[in-house]
Specification:
It contains eleven helices and eight strands. With about 260 residues, it is α/β, with parallel strands linked by helices. The chain has one domain: TIM Barrel (Alpha-Beta Barrel), CATH 3.20.20. The chain has an eight-stranded parallel barrel with strand order 1-2-3-4-5-6-7-8, surrounded by six helices. Strand 6, helix 9 and strand 7 form a beta-alpha-beta unit. Helix 8 packs parallel to helix 9. The N and C termini lie far apart (about 40 Å). The protein binds 3-methyl-2-oxobutanoic acid. The site of 3-methyl-2-oxobutanoic acid (KIV) has 11 residues, from strand 6. 3-methyl-2-oxobutanoic acid (KIV) binds next to strand 6.
Length: about 260
């Protein structure tokens, strides 16, 4: 297997559909990598899936950098993308550049940012110009949960759908090599995928994007509940609970060791 790079991801458009996933540590990054996952995202979803928060908002740069370096040590071939946490790129361009550079120095191959405002697009262009590949994110943006009042599907009205299409075009023009489309109607995701020349990666956006994301904890059934669109390919949470209870019982019964 060859190491995935940005050029190979770009070249996959229209040829191979890519199943991409999150990881937050070296052990699962190695497993995903050996299974052929092409892009591993160290998502700011580390906040709600690993650190026990309700949202991604409390995630700090230190959390991201620790996880990125662990994932980069575990993954040999996947493209490792660092999801820049809330506050790390809304804090002024120079500081945002510094934080993106820190992600690459920790082992990421690219960074991901939410949004498509003129300020975010200018930042994407500056990063790309500096040699930092950027994966953009439009549609439902979890870092805006306080504005939405929950993790709500976006793009349901004509006006909102038009805005998301414009956002996707804007981040492509700014130089993003791929665009995440989160929680938008499937027909809108299809239209955006057809309108862009870069790869779209959907999550809760139907089957017609160039690639898909799944949060590792949903894919493996590690959380009690998953979003309705997320297929659970295993039930590792139940298997782990069973193993821990048998262990506790065996120790109590002097059956182990
Ligand atoms: O943080 C994350 O896991 C994400 C994906 C859902 C795209 O942003």
């Amino acid at each position: 297997m060859k190491k995935w790079n940005v050029a190979a991801i770009r070249a996959a458009k229209g040829k191979t559909k890519l199943g991409c996933a999150t990881a937050y540590d070296a052990a699962f990054a190695r497993i995903e990598d050996e299974a052929g996952v092409p892009i591993i995202l160290v998502g700011d979803s580390i906040g709600n899936n690993v650190l026990g928060f309700e949202t991604t908002i409390p995630v700090r740069m230190e959390d991201t950098l620790g996880a990125v370096s662990a994932v980069a040590r575990g993954a040999k071939n996947a493209l490792v993308v660092a999801d820049m946490p809330f506050g790390s790129y809304q804090c002024g361009e120079d500081k945002a550049m510094e934080n993106a550079v820190a992600c690459l120095k920790a082992g990421a191959d690219a960074v991901k940012l939410e949004g498509a405002s003129p300020r975010v697009c200018a930042l994407i262009s500056r990063m790309v110009e500096a040699g930092i590949p950027v994966l953009a994110h439009v549609g439902m943006m979890p870092q805006r949960v306080n504005e939405y009042g929950g993790f709500k599907k976006q793009g349901k009205t004509d006006e909102s759908a038009r805005q998301i299409l414009e956002d996707a075009k804007a981040v492509e023009a700014a130089g993003a090599f791929a665009v995440t489309l989160e929680c938008i109607p499937a027909d809108l995701a299809k239209r955006i995928t057809e309108a862009l020349s870069v790869v779209t990666i959907g999550v809760g956006a139907g089957p017609d994007t160039d690639a898909q994301w799944l949060v590792m904890h949903d894919l493996l059934g590690l959380n009690e509940k998953s979003p309705p669109f997320a297929k659970r390919f295993a039930e590792l949470g139940a298997a782990a609970k069973d193993a821990f209870s048998r262990y506790v019982a065996d120790v109590a019964a002097s059956a182990y060791p």
